[in-house]
Amino acid sequence: MKNELVARILHEIADRLDLEGVQFKPRAYRRAAEVVEALAEPIEDLVADGTHAELPGIGEAIAKKIAEIVETGRLKYHDELKAKLPIDLHTLTRVDGVGPKTAKLLYEALGVKTLDDLEQAARAGRIRTVKGLGEKTEARILRGLAETRGAVERMLLFAALRLAEELVAELRSTGLFERVEYAGSVRRGRETIGDLDILAVSAEPTSAVAAFLALPEVAEILSRGDTKASVRLGNGVQVDLRVVPSESFGAALQYFTGSKAHNIALRKLAVARGWKLNEYGLYDADDKPLAGEDEAGVYRALGLGFIPPELREDAGEIEAAAKAAARNRRGGLPRLVELADLQGDLHVHTQASDGLASIADMVAAARARGLKYIAITDHTRFAEVIGGLNVDDVAGQIDAIGKLNKTLRGFHVLTGIEVNVQPDGSLDLPDEVLAALDVVVAAVHSHFRLTKDEMTARLQRACENEHVDILAHPTGRKIGERPPCDADWDAVFAAAAKTGTALEINANPIRLDLSAELVRRAIGAGCKLSIGSDAHAPEHFEFLRLGVLTARRGWAEAKNVLNVGPLRQPR
Ligand code: DGT
Ligand code: CA
Ligand code: CA
User: Fold this and answer.
1) Residues contacting ligand 1 via CB (< 6 Å)
2) Which CATH superfamily is domain 155-243 in?
3) Which of 103, 251, 343, 458 would disulfide-bridge 281, Cβ 3.0–4.6 Å?
């Protein structure tokens, strides 16, 4: 689907119009981009019957432009704007410390057009020579570059999952396959994905490979064989397909799911018994097959409980799976939290701040996903969010939610707020206002570059406020855009555990914050977790799935998660 492409071009038009000093128009393009980004269905389907013009915030002119992008893959108007300022604005502005204005400044002063140019300029110490920028900016850009480099060639998990599922569905619909599954890092739920690995069983491998090569997304064939092929899609993503015999499917799924480190550790276990493990199966010393058709069978034959893909990083999961595996299918592995365990979402926005929908619309979408409660946690009115809530607005929203709750059966809306944690750790709403709300989510939205000690004290102080229930997106990182802030996480987690403040796993695709590594440490420190969508549109409840994958990669069980199970009586 082309939603991402359309949203990216619209965002970039907004940035470029901003730089030209154009009024109002940038806002319209930005809103249109957000609407397209939030869509669950492919934009090309809406364009096909013209209904994209009926989307909220999309006027006639922008609707025409969207149709042009969908039909031709580009937009003349965008090309004209690009000709005036010929730089890779989208990639450059992904670097922490580089906004559109800085990018323009760097182009005019130093001729920086690409990420490579930026890196050269930063390394040569030329950025500090530009009027308005300095050594501090240069150092920040150098740090940011490392982050962006790592992610630019990799895809976010959300996009990768959608793509993998689409490709698998398309292959299944050809009728040429007995089985098709995706493997690799996307199956393990890693936060970024290098390429997609698809595994299949087919009675006619040659036709099966041909069907893969004929998929409409394929732009370039990288290699082809009788039972495997690699392609590059139009969006630049590489996809590998392997067709295997059905008696090897489980072993191949295990092998190509990885991780490599997990596979190596597993193979050692086989070798220690004088056996052999590869993508075709598990074999004894006489080459007699012991397992291969089904994945769990491979683990069982090795004396292990089934290890969920999210845990396969050689981080203690094999030792855990070996414990008491004979008596218990899971061995000593955790009973990982599942999406179906979640009954609520404690981080939701509406159009009262920077969301796109009403409370009622968000409630309807949450119900449709099987949730039983949500907390409305709009932003306060601080500098960066236009239209956030002030003290009077909070009172008004509490009233409105009270009335709405009277009309709902089997669903409850909690009142809440997302308060800003200021640099000294205080909050931007007075305690008596916070006391009147069911849920207080506290989050850092500015001053990310305090020293480690300052940031630690800031987050600890936020936890220590008795009204704060959840510390949202604790590290502030944006994958590929902004590195996590520097804090003594064990000290922050200790404060959270002591005060009963839950730590959020923010499920927004670009955040996934806490990361899986920090989730595991937070659980070790005795903290509760809250898996929050941070939804700004009805479709965003889908993000919860990413939050659950991240929780699972951090070894989280249902009992570690606040929004599992029915709502306990609000205070
Ligand atoms: P990615 O694509 O970078 O996000 O990460 P993966 O994990 O999908 O890695 P990829 O696509 O290179 O390979 C898919 C899986 O195949 C990998 O997770 C484990 C397996 N694999 C690849 N190369 C090796 C290897 O040299 N040894 C072993 N044991 N397994 C390998
Ligand atoms: Ca891969
Ligand atoms: Ca691969």
Assistant:
1) 184-185, 190, 193-195, 197, 255-256, 258-260, 263-264
2) Beta Polymerase, domain 2 (3.30.460.10)
3) 251
